C-alpha cells in the first residue's frame, strides 16, 4: 500500500482511523513475512516508514489507537512455527527509534524528567552498535546452557536449543561466578561475507535466497532440523539479559563486562558516555566505521547505565523507556513537482498536496507529498514544474525539503481564495495559518467528509457504506445527515435501480446499518465529530454520564453558567476546558441540535457501562499534588496506571485518593472538605511496593 502522505495533523479522524486500520493489517503482514517467514517483500526503511506513519497518527489521534496496534506488538506471533514454544519469564522487548540528534536529545530530556533529576545530576548512557540479527535468549542454570529461545512475539518464542549448539560464540558452560539462573540476551547474526557466500551457494543449488543478513541468520537458526543450522556460519553477541536470580552489578556497563567475562562476546564498539554530545560523538564514530564492519548494523543503541534507574523507567507498550535506538538516516531524492492539488477536509480545511513525478526515496516510490498549508508553499516558493528535493528520513511522511528552481521563471502558485469544492470563500482566521472553506453545511466536501467520519471504523463502523457510495448517495440527496443512513432501507428499490447493485449487496448494506440501531454511545458521540471529542474523550465522557441525554444536559448547563455542571465535566480525567467549551458550542447550534435529535430518533444506544477490574487501587481515581520528592509527576501517573488506577488532575467528588507532597495547597484543602482520603508520597510508595 502507499503511505498516505497527508500530515497527521491534517488528516481527518475518519481518514486516520481507516489508515490506522490499513496500517495495522499491512504491518502485521510484513511482520509475518519478515519474522516468521524470513522473506520480507519490502525494504526495512519502507517498513520503518509504515511504523513511523502509524506512530505519528497515533500521536495525533491518541484515542484512535487500536487494540491490535502495531505499536504494541513485538515481532510476530509464532503459532505456525514447527519449533516448540517457550514462554519467556521476562518479556523480550523491541526498541523505540530516534532518527535525529533532536530526537536523541528529547529522549534524554524525557528520561531526566521522568526520573525528576536535578540539573547537575549526570546520566551515564551506554552506546553500542545496533546489529542486524535476531534476538535470542540463552538461559543458563548453574552456568550451564539449558535453553535457547527466539523472541517470537516477545512473550512466547521458539525453542532453538539444539540449533545454538552449533554456534561457537555461544558457550554451553559459562566461566566464573555465574548466578543460579541467568538469561543472556543478544543477537544471533551472520557476517556480510558469510551472507554473500550463503546466497551464492543457495543460488547455485537453486535454493531460497535471503533478502539480507538478518533474514539469513533468522532462517538459518529457526530450523526444525538443527543439522541445517550446523552448516550455517552463525555468530552471536550479547547486549542484555532477561530473567536472573541475581543481577550482580549496578550498571549496564559493568553487567555487559561481567557477561563478557563469562565467555560471551559483546559489541567491540560498546562505550559509556556522559551526555548527549558523548552519545552523538559515539554515533558518528560508529557511523564512520559502519562500511568497514564485517557485519550489518542499522543504528546505535543507547541505554541508561544505572540499573536502578532502568527499573524505575520501566516500559511503555513494547519497548523500554530506558533504551533508544538511533537509526542511521535515510535518503533524499530529486524530482519534479507536477501539480499542487487542494483537498477539503471535514472541518473545511484546505490542504495542499504536491503531486510528484514518481521517485524512489529510501527504497519507496513517492508520488505525493503534503505541503501542509499556504505558508509552507510560500516558504519553499514552490510552483508546479519546479525541481524539488524529497526526503524520507525514517520519517514516514516524505517531506519536500528544498526547491532547486526557486529562481527560475515561472508563475507563482496562487493559493485559492475560494473552496475548490463549493466555491465559497476560503479564508484564514486572524492569526491562523490554515485556510478554511466558509461554506459550512453548503460545502459538499465537508458534509460528505462528516458522513464518512460517522460510518468510519472508530465511530459507527458501518460496513459496506464506503466513500464512493456516500459520495453517490449524497449527490442524489439521500444523505442529508447521519440519521438518513438509517432511512436508506426505504430506498431499497431506488438503490437497485441505480445499477451496479445486486439484491444481495443492498441487503448486506441494509443489514450492516440495521446492526447499528443500538450503537455504542461513545462511538456514536465520537461519530458526531464534535471538536476535540476523539474516541478516548468520548469514552471518558460516557463513562461518567452513561447516556447521551445526560451528557447533553451537563454540557448545556455548563454553557449556561452552571458551575457545578462545569466542574463535573472538568473533573473527568482527560477532559479539559477545550472539550467542555466545544461541547457547549456544539449544543448551542440549532443545526447540531437537529442532527442530534434526528439521529437519536433513529438509534437507541444502551446506557454506557464499564467493567472494572479487581485490585487494591484499580478503578480508583488518584490525584497527585504538591512536590513529589522521589519521582516526577509522569512517573507517579505511570505507576497509578500500572496499578489500574486513574490519575486525574483535579480533585472532585469522584476522587478516591489524594497523594499530597509538600506545598500542596488548594487541592489538599478541597480533598479535606470532601472527606477524601489523603496520603503522602511514602504512603503511595507503600501501595506501589505492596502491589509488587
Ligand atoms: N522489511 C520488512 O518487511 C520488515 C518487517 C518487519 C520488521 N522489519 C525490520 O525489523 C526491524 C524491527 O524489528 P524489531 O521489532 O526487532 O526492532 P529492531 O530490530 O529495530 O529493534 C529491537 C531489537 O534490536 C536488537 N538489538 C540489536 N542490537 C542491540 C543492542 N545493542 N542492544 C539492544 N538491542 C539490540 C534486539 O534484538 C531488539 O529486539 C526494523 O529494522 C524493521 O525495518 C522489516
Ligand atoms: Zn467548500
How are the SSEs placed, and which strands pair?
Blueprint: H1 13-36, H2 44-60, E1 85-87, E2 97-98, H3 101-115, E3 125-131, E4 134-141, E5 144-150, E6 156-158, H4 161-164, E7 181-189, H5 192-204, H6 213-221, H7 226-230, E8 235-244, H8 252-261, E9 271-273, H9 276-289, E10 297-304, H10 307-313, E11 315-316, E12 319-320, E13 323-327, E14 332-344, E15 350-361, E16 364-370, H11 374-380, E17 387-391, E18 399-403, E19 426-428, E20 435-437, H12 444-455, H13 467-475, H14 482-485, H15 492-497, H16 503-514, H17 521-527, H18 535-545, H19 548-559, H20 563-570, H21 577-588, H22 590-602, E21 621-625, H23 633-642, E22 646-648, E23 657-660, H24 666-674, E24 677-679, H25 681-691
Parallel strand pairs: 2-13, 21-22, 21-23, 23-24
Antiparallel strand pairs: 1-6, 3-9, 3-10, 4-5, 4-7, 7-8, 10-13, 11-12, 14-15, 14-17, 15-16, 17-18, 19-20
Helix pairs in contact: 1-2, 12-13, 17-18, 19-20, 19-21
This protein binds nicotinamide-adenine-dinucleotide and zinc ion.
Domain BRCT: 612-681
Keywords: DNA damage, DNA repair, DNA replication, Ligase, Magnesium, Manganese, Metal-binding, NAD, Zinc
Binding site for NAD(+): 44-48, 94-95, 128, 151, 187, 303, 327
